[in-house]
């Protein structure tokens, strides 16, 4: 694909880019985080640590089945981990990378900007 351009571009070496499979997985992660309620669950786990599903349902003011479905999607994207203790299932942020993503997204969203860059 070529585009018409009326000015010169500097010559630069090609930057190394991620493999297509990695980009696809990254897009899947961002899609999973893209729902406000799922992002709120991730925030709660990043800030408050491990929680059981019933606790998350109460804190989210949502049905357990709804919260379970959201957590299932987050787990499928490898954003949360779970452990079972008797009848209870506890969820936690999968790793510090996920916590960093959540914090960065929310910090960026909280910035007041007059215009997009």
Structure description:
The protein has 117 residues and is mainly alpha-helical. The protein contains five helices and three strands; from the N terminus they run ααβααββα. The protein has helices at 20-33, 36-48, 53-60, 64-76, 96-110; strands at residues 51-52, 80-85, 88-93. It has a three-stranded antiparallel beta sheet. A hairpin with a 2-residue loop joins β2 (80-85) and β3 (88-93). α2 (36-48) crosses α5 (96-110) and α3 (53-60) crosses α4. It is elongated, with a radius of gyration of 19 Å.
How far the N terminus sits from the C terminus, by CA atoms, comes to 26 Å
**Beta strands, count:** 3
Backbone CA Rg: 19 Å
Helix content: 40-55%
**Order of strands in the sheet with most strands:** 1-3-2
Structural class: mainly alpha
Shape: elongated
Which regions have little confidence, pLDDT < 50, spanning 5+ residues? Answer: none
Mean pLDDT: 92
How many helices? 5
Largest sheet: 3 strands, antiparallel
Sheet-strand content, in percent, reads: 5-15%
| Sequence of secondary-structure elements | HHEHHEEH
List the helices and strands and how they pair.
Elements: H1 20-33, H2 36-48, E1 51-52, H3 53-60, H4 64-76, E2 80-85, E3 88-93, H5 96-110
Antiparallel strand pairs: 1-3, 2-3
Helix pairs in contact: 2-5, 3-4
């Amino acid at each position: 694909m070529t585009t018409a351009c009326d000015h010169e571009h500097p010559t630069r070496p090609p930057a190394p880019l991620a493999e297509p499979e990695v980009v696809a997985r990254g897009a899947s992660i961002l899609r999973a985080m893209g729902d406000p309620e799922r992002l709120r669950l991730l925030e709660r786990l990043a800030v408050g640590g491990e929680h059981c599903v019933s606790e998350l349902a109460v804190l989210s003011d949502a049905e357990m089945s709804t919260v379970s479905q959201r957590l299932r999607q987050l787990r499928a994207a490898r954003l949360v981990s779970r452990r079972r203790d008797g009848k209870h299932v506890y969820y936690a942020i999968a790793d510090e990378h996920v916590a960093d993503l959540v914090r960065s997204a929310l910090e960026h969203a909280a910035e007041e900007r007059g215009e997009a860059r």
